[in-house]
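user: can you give me the structure for this one chain? tokens are fine.
assistant: on it. calling the predictor now.
[tool input]
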Amino acid sequence: MSSTRVQIEIALGALFVVLAAVLLLFLGFEEEDALASALDTQTAEKIEVGAHLFHANCARCHGEQGEGLIGPPLNDAAFFTTRIEEVGWPGTLEDYIISTVAVGRLVSTRPEQWPGEGYPAMPLWSVDYGGPLRNDEIEDIATFILNWEESATDGVVISVDRPPAPSSEDPLARGKAVFGAYGCAACHQLDDAGAVGVVGPTLNGIATTSETRLEGYTAEEYIIESIINTNAYIVEGYQENLMPQNFGDQMSEQELSDLVLYLLSQE
């Protein structure tokens, strides 16, 4: 074999090595772009699913746009910049959201700042603790909330007053207003009030079912007891302490009377 031929073969081999390296480098960039695109698509899908779950389960307390109703605002710059530092959370904001949604909160950390004065406190939502949501659904809700970070505004302003009862002579209308003002719709289903909550038992037909819930109690007595002494009777399939313990202190006698009368109309 001549030296010229050997040199040609060496040159061709080196050329093939260089071309192979360039091709691998190109494919690497393409794969990285494809991976980034796939992650973006996955995040977008989680945001979309999380938006539906937030609307169905969270909006009645935190508002459709996270503006805060009877619960604190989430679409707020301070939530993204200072919240985990305020509460001393050692992990990420995403972990904080997931944990809070999963296990709930018995008492608000800042009751004086939000409508409802911290009541009702946040119920637990994870199936691991008896709630209605799977862990992947809670993660989707967290992804949706985190999506607000870029557009969150400073100092979200909300009213700290509960919606006033209507100036109506109809106690049922007043009772329905109390039902909405105290956030009952966030946890209970009641078709007449447009409530679709699933954390607590349904209130459809409560006037009838409550007659047999607690031995020796009338329907009216049972409903009153359930509001002011929430652990007196736990409906099968639900847990203690899901419902705020201080409605008896929060509601006026008139509000309690109107609410009970309204629930007694739900046969």
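assistant: here you go. The domain at 1-161 is CATH 1.10.760.10 (Cytochrome Bc1 Complex; Chain D, domain 2). The beta strands are 189-190, 195-196.
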